[in-house]
Amino acid sequence: MPAEVGTDEERVMLGKWIQKGQGLIVGGSPLGGAYLDPNIERPKDTQEKSKEYVKFDHHAAEELPHLKGRFRYELEKYYRDRYGPYLQKIKYLFMSKVKISELKDAPSEGSGKQINLTHPFTETKYVLAIFCVEEKYYVMTDECRMCGGSLGRLPDLRGMFAACSKEECLWNIRRGSCKFDRSSVTPTYRVSVMEDGLYIEI
Fold first, then answer.
1. Does a structural domain hold residue 118?
2. What's the domain range around 13?
3. At 199, which helix (H) or strand (E)?
4. Each residue of 168-181: pLDDT tens digit?
5. Are 143 and 183 a contacting pair, CB within 8 Å?
6. How far apart are the C-alpha atoms of 35 and 133, rounded to whole Å?
């Protein structure tokens, strides 16, 4: 049975839809309209995550027919207006501190690497890129939102920017914004350095 407006079922389903689509090119489609473009090449894990999102997007459209066809920015506002700041809600529902690397495996100064992560609680798969600049670690989504290239597989750091492997699109590793289109932003994650490794909130 479809979720009714203003119910917990709507809040949870829409919150999951917002969270699952973050950092994915397919997440830019309106609710219920996500599809995989065969012309875009993605890393294997990102491809699987995108397939999972498309399936969930269609399921969410069945559960939330009154929101079907509306774009992400509209639904984020819809969520905020009804349930408060959605990022705080999502963090409360889904986020936790997760270990992503041993200290000995962390990238050295001026370098980076790709990390494949399966969330220990939600079992969501992530492909992340981690960089070390001026003795600080920065983590962001690995997939370039502009062309689908990788930021961490063949790390190419240029100051505070990482160039993607496909078309050398530059992304600010601190803010997550594209140098050539600041309206395009990819998720970043705050890194905590602990005695037993590196952790992020995800």
1. yes
2. 8-94
3. strand 197-201
4. 999 999 999 999 88
5. no
6. 36
